[in-house]
Specification:
Number of helices: 18
Strand content: 5-15%
Number of strands: 25
Largest sheet: 7 strands, mixed
Radius of gyration: 25 Å
CATH class of the largest domain: Alpha Beta
Helix content: 25-40%
Distance between the termini: 35 Å
CATH architecture of the largest domain: 3-Layer(aba) Sandwich
Length: about 725
């Protein structure tokens, strides 16, 4: 494959509860408070097609029925081209533990079901925006650090003021820290409120970027070393009439080749001596955001010029460091809008030099019990576990997938496949993975015959044509689940319904991951009440019934099910051990493995987070760092790093450039209250030691999301790491 083709394809497929002593800010808001006893579903229920009411059913009978229906739908709607049952869907909620979400997502993919998660579009848009900028598909900072911030901007208020990030911002405002909240029609509950018109956040953030550049508030030294500000762009890049160069009006898709860098003879991106020279990324940033004047931003957002100007001046003041931006994510918002807002916030934070330091950078506030963890472990249908890449396309073989996603993701995928399949096939079981089709409808519009909802109530999120289903399975702890009761008042509905009691979150063991990337081991208040079962127990029971019924089936499509690996005992510890792999210290050991086929690791980004480490970090809440890091609480991925790119907090010689000091080079090694987010070469000014953003192919943060791939083999067309590209283009803008 040609260089143009591989680069065109690459990237385009595109809280946890705290224990004793942990401050309230560290707790997941969805889990705080007493467990509701009223309205609980405690007994499995069954409703035959057309019946007027539910009746009790045993668990064994329920799972035998579900398994039988699942295999029937597999047989009637199996697509050899897509390697899946087109009319079988599994819909997961965000209220599952990491282990439950992983097990159900694994079961869905092994059985060839179409998989989707509540709020999936918003979650993946957030991940894409962050990965395209920082190289990590999650927030670089944690809300616990807001206690040390000197200025805070809250963008949006999704999920309500109960989220700990909002509580932290409120506490900072009460302590005298300048706090601004920016959102559509919000009240003044946190600091200085800027209530804006719809889409007004984009105009305000665009104006903030212009103000930083025009008033020389940017941290030039940080930008030169730790971002692509000085990289030179191709002269053919352009933006006219609301579209970037490379746009095809017929297909309405981009060819991003013109979004790349100029190259030196050695194949590396060309750089200018000064970041502001014509042709650089920084010059393009200045030009692109020049139209976002104070007058235009205020008029578009519907706020006063005086108030907006005051916000720009005070938030960017050099004495207000560290400065954090909290991005609140609304799961119901348009993914494109989320991507634009997060990218704008990330660019502003980078321009101010706030990424890589405690109390600065980007903090994410996502509503729900475990939205981050369920996305991390692959419960979103459009992304494999650990953000290893998108599922294969129809007709795409293993080599084609690697050409699209790169060698790093190949190693992560192989480690996952070896955890899922016992096979001698050279593709490790890749040919059994269900395929995806770009632009296909969601499960809501997918003409399904059978839908399994795990910890979710899709009807509460919008209209679903549930009456078209032959079989509906709902697992939830709430007896008021609307989806399970959609037929009430419509006795003629011909849908068979199994309403099965899921244990309450307070009753489940396992782990969750908050939106600051911190994994925490849960301490259940009690075991499951009544006849309710955990998500792991339910997944194991269904898998067991599928296995029983496979014994009498000989169709070729069932062969991959027989080769699949499942746990002898589906316990949280066993599932977690598969997810993190054996004897792995961090994800770099997967990414750099000399022989990845020897590894097994279901979620590569979690490598190193052993159960033993988590057990020792759930009850100690003292902040030994004094910087809001709480190093004895939880395990942040990747590799126990709390602040992404913390190398950028020191100068080229390794001396702290912040007060108070954070990370430093002591002449022999990096030290500080965080795990160094960098390989440990002999000298801090070694070129490898300045790659503060190790997850990007350039090794630096990406103000401009360029079309680029590191380690490209021109003979095979395979790169080590293609850059993630935002769906909306290399720069965010208001449409």
């Amino acid at each position: 494959m040609r260089r143009r083709d591989i680069l065109r394809l690459a990237g385009l497929g595109l809280g946890a509860a705290g224990g004793a002593g942990v401050p309230a800010l560290a707790q997941n808001p969805a889990k705080v408070g007493a467990r509701a006893a009223a309205g609980r579903l405690l007994v499995p229920q069954y409703r035959a097609a057309g019946a007027a009411s539910f009746s009790a059913i045993t668990w064994n009978k329920a799972w035998a029925t579900v398994a039988e229906r699942l295999l029937e739908v597999r047989a009637s709607s199996w697509s050899e081209a897509n390697r899946r049952a087109e009319r079988l869907g599994v819909y997961c909620g965000t209220g599952l533990t990491n282990e439950e979400a992983y097990a159900w997502a694994k079961l869905a993919r092994l059985s060839g079901a179409r998989l989707e998660r509540s709020g999936e579009g918003a979650s993946l848009a957030l991940a894409r925006a962050l990965e395209a900028t920082f190289g990590v598909p999650a927030a670089p900072n944690h809300w616990l650090e807001l206690s040390k911030s000197q200025a805070i901007l809250v963008v949006g208020r999704a999920g309500g003021a109960g989220h700990p990030a909002f509580a932290a911002a409120q506490a900072a405002a009460q302590a005298g820290v300048p706090v601004w909240s920016l959102g559509e029609g919000q009240d003044a509950s946190i600091g200085n409120a800027l209530a804006v018109a719809p889409r007004g956040e984009v105009a305000v953030l665009g104006g903030l970027i212009r103000f930083i550049v025009e008033n020389k508030r940017a941290d030039a030294a940080f930008l030169d070393v730790h971002t692509n500000a000085a990289f030179r762009l191709l002269p053919e890049f352009g933006f006219q009439n609301g579209v970037f160069s490379g746009f095809d009006p017929k297909t309405r898709r981009y060819d991003p080749e013109s979004w790349g860098y100029e190259f030196l003879e050695n194949g590396r991106p060309a750089r200018s001596e000064q970041i502001a020279e014509e042709g650089t990324v920084y010059a393009q940033i200045a030009r692109f955001f020049a139209p976002y004047t104070l007058e235009r931003a205020a008029r578009t957002a519907g706020v006063g010029e005086a108030a907006l100007g005051r916000f720009y001046r005070e938030f960017t003041a050099p004495e207000r460091r560290s400065a954090a931006i909290v991005c609140a994510i609304d799961a119901a918002a348009e993914p494109a809008a989320i991507e634009q807002r997060v990218r704008l916030a990330a660019i502003a934070s980078l321009l101010l030099g706030q990424v890589g330091r405690p109390g600065g950078g980007i903090v994410v506030a996502s509503p729900g019990f475990n939205p981050q963890g369920t996305a991390d472990v692959g419960a979103t249908g459009a992304m494999l576990p650990g953000y290893a890449g998108a599922p294969p396309l129809a007709g795409e073989d293993f080599i084609g997938w690697v050409q699209r996603h790169g060698v790093r993701n190949q190693r992560r995928l192989v480690a996952m496949l070896r955890s899922w399949y016992d096979t001698a096939a050279p593709d490790f079981g890749f040919a059994a993975l269900p395929c995806s089709r770009p632009g296909e409808p969601t499960l809501r519009g997918g003409n399904l015959e059978m839908l399994v909802c795990v910890g979710a109530d899709p009807l509460a999120e919008g209209n679903w044509p549930l009456e078209k289903l032959k079989t509906l399975v709902v697992l939830d702890h709430a007896g008021t689940n609307r989806t399970a009761r959609f037929w009430q008042g419509r006795g003629a509905a011909r849908t068979e319904v199994l309403f099965l009691p899921l244990a309450h979150p307070d009753e489940r063991e396992g782990t969750t991951t908050d939106s600051g990337r911190r994994i925490v081991l849960l301490s259940p208040a009690s075991g499951p009440r009544g006849q309710s079962q955990t998500g792991l127990t339910t997944a194991a029971s269904l898998w067991e019934q599928i296995g029983f019924k496979l014994a009498s089936r000989t169709q070729p499509r069932e062969e991959s099910l027989r080769e699949a690996r499942w746990w002898r005992e589906t316990t949280p510890a066993a599932v977690w051990a598969e997810m993190v792999g054996a004897d792995l210290g961090n994800p770099a050991e997967v990414d750099g493995a000399a022989n990845p086929r020897e590894l097994r690791c279901g979620v590569a980004i979690y490598a190193g987070a052993s159960g033993e480490k988590l057990a020792g970090r759930r009850e100690r809440g003292e902040d030994g760092s004094g910087l809001g890091l709480y190093p004895a609480y939880g395990y942040p991925w990747p590799g126990d790093v709390r602040v992404i790119a913390n190398r950028a907090s020191a100068d080229l010689q390794g001396n702290p450039r912040l007060a108070p000091p954070f990370m430093r080079w002591d002449g022999k090694a990096w030290s500080g209250p965080d795990t160094p987010d960098i390989a440990n070469p002999a000298n801090p000014d070694d070129p490898a030691a300045t790659r503060s953003f190790r997850g990007t192919p350039e090794g630096v943060a990406r103000l401009f999301a360029a079309y680029y791939a590191a380690g490209l083999n021109l003979d095979t067309g395979i790169a080590f790491l293609p850059a993630a590209l935002p769906a909306g283009g290399p720069l965010p803008f208001a449409k």
